Amino acid sequence: MLTLSLILSYVLGIIVHRLSGAVIYPLYYLFGEGVLEGIIRDFPDIETVRALIDNSLEITPLGDVDYYRYASLIVHEKLPKTAEIAEKMIAMSTMSRSLLICFPIFALSATKAFTRKFSKRMELSIFLFLGVVLLFIEVVLLRSFLSYWSSSVWEVLRGYIVYSKLES
Fold it and tell me: What pTM does this model have?
């Protein structure tokens, strides 16, 4: 029974993780650009990163995501502690993204069982109150998802700048 529970938990975790990836697509329409592109664009020293990569590779200008991916490769290879910090932030971002899906499902199932003990009018009031609370929690989870993701990306880009300056 324990083995079956572990297997089902693992499969459920994979399903929730894949479903939570869909959270990113509505953000594209909300912000008018890809989330990763926006995070990189908002990085204060992105021009420095672009110049450093262009000078070191002597190639035509790339897109911002390509600059980030190149910087990420270098940081993972040359600055493992910085890469580890960035990976921890990505893990927290992924957890927040998954909770965006899991928390409403849990809240709905828990309140449905809880409200059966009340009248229909009281049940509606409870659902409205918990809906507002759930909306607040979802906004907090979305903000934490975006904050951890941007912190991770900015950590990598800052690490690349430091590495490039030390190499010069």
Answer: 0.81
Q: Phi and psi dihedrals of 62, rounded to 5? A: -100, 175
Query: 107: buried, middle or exposed (CB in 10 Å: 19+, 13-18, 0-12)?
Result: middle
The Cβ-side half-sphere exposure at 124, using a 13 Å CA radius, reads: 2
State how far the Cα of 12 lies from the Cα of 109, in Å rounded to an integer. 16
Distance in angstroms (rounded) separating the CA atoms of residues 85 and 15: 26
Q: Specify the DSSP class assigned to residue 44.
A: T
Q: Do 118 and 126 touch, CB atoms closer than 8 A?
A: yes
Q: pLDDT digit string (tens) for 119-128?
A: 777 878 878 8
Residue 33, amino acid: E
Helix (H, G, I), strand (E, B) or coil at 61: coil
Give residue-wise pLDDT tens across range 6-22. Answer: 999 899 888 888 888 88
Residues for the chain: how many in total? 168
